[in-house]
Amino acid sequence: MFIIWCPHKNTMLHQRITIVRYVRPQEQDVNSDLQWFGNALGLFSLRDKDKSCFRMFITMLKGAKVHHAFSSDELAHHLNLSRATVIHHLNKLMEAGIVIQQGSRYILRVETLSLLIDEIRKDLERSLLDLTQVAKEIDEALDL
């Protein structure tokens, strides 16, 4: 987890980036690949029995293609989920830096999955640079 600046809210936020190394399944179709992709980013858990987060992610991915932002009510209605479930998953996706909020609507951070990985890579690189700098300062303070 690391801190990121959120200029439109003029505040500091945190972002949790989870990367889980999974062996890619033998069966390689779009649905299996999307499930693997989301699992590798730590988006989906075994507790999500009805795959509601996965379904929401796919809906938002389709929406991103046409630059469509969703309200939580719209997602709940479209996916036949409670608004509370949708909000729970939206918060998880926002904490992961995958979804952003625009007013009362939500949209994927970028339009494609490859751009999403590029952005996550940049986030990780910034975080590692910050960690390296602080580690050097601590080493100097401790005379290591």
Description:
The chain has 5 helices and 5 strands; from the N terminus they run E-E-H-H-E-H-H-E-E-H. With 144 residues, it is of the alpha+beta class. It has a single domain (2-141), classed as Winged helix-like DNA-binding domain superfamily/Winged helix DNA-binding domain (Arc Repressor Mutant, subunit A, Orthogonal Bundle). The strands form 2 sheets. Strands 3-5-4 form a 3-stranded antiparallel sheet. It has a two-stranded antiparallel sheet with strand order 1-2. It starts with a strand and ends with a helix.
Q: What's the overall average pLDDT, rounded? A: 85
Strand/helix succession: EEHHEHHEEH
Name of the top-level CATH class = Mainly Alpha
Helix percentage range = 40-55%
Architecture, CATH level 2? Orthogonal Bundle
Give the spatial strand order of the biggest sheet: 3-5-4
| Domain tally | 1
Radius of gyration, in Å, reads 17 Å
How does the major sheet shape up?
A: 3 strands, antiparallel
Q: How many β-strand stretches? A: 5
For the record, what is the CATH homologous superfamily label?
Winged helix-like DNA-binding domain superfamily/Winged helix DNA-binding domain
Strand-pairing-aware structural class: alpha+beta
